[in-house]
Sequence to fold (308 residues):
Amino acid sequence: MSRNILITGATGLVGKYTLKDILEEKDNVRLVVIYRDHDNLVFLTHIPIYQNKKVVFCRGDITDSIFLERVISQYQIDTIFHFAAQSIVRTSQKNPIDTLKTNIIGSANILELARKYDIKWLLSMSTDKIYGNQTEVENLYNYEPTEIYSLSKITVSMLNKFYTDTYGLKLYEPRCCNLFGFDLQFSRLIPNTILKCLKGKNPIVYQFEGQEGARQYLYVKNATYHFVLMMDGEKIGVENVCSTKLWKSSEIVVEILRYFPKMIPEYVESDFVEITEQSMVPSPIFKEFIDFKEGIKQTVDDYRMFMS
Fold:
């Protein structure tokens, strides 16, 4: 089946791996990429997927509905992967209005245009953070916001349900645990740790009142491969996409330090805590084919190549 696919947030972690997977797996596709930050795109142009002739680049903002409609109409979009969001929790907390605009208004624009143009299939990316400090979550609507980012994503999830129930929109909403891989968001734990080690600096483990949070982590290729399968089958509905094991920050740093044996972690008290402990029950149809340790190895290798 031929597809004209729109990807928002394609310079981000999940977007660029999804773009790569589609280009590697699908022949009869045209991909239209919306990006906002020109610096990030320039940063990535050396990667072969961003030089592929099947990819069209459109600079703009998902909060601009006129721009979005022009792109969807001009390129006859029939499939959408919506990843664009303000997803860094600390940044969201410092800029709540910008977060609400990007995450809620931007997503509402995508939903309304998907309805108007009868989009065949839409992926609307979500997060485990909407469950807050809960463990082994199976109830997909047991929300517990802990900060502005999770609150914004809960609102988007409710909008998704409204559009599917009211207009029959064919929408798939994966709720993912912490995804990792080669990432330009260097403030996140895994890229920050690897980059510090590559620069000969000791990595930092943040604690809150002497305690560390425990979360699920998943190498990003597991998720993006699954997303492409869901597109092929035009899967709709909500599901949890996650690993089964919980990792503390210090355990992750220790795993990374296997590749940097001279580095020693430094423990620092943080004035901000996102979530203390959280876990989801993964969807029965999701399969993790690259485990955490192999994912860390591949990520370290990617950053080493990037820094060389």
About this structure: The chain has two domains: 3-179+216-241, 183-215+245-277+289-307.
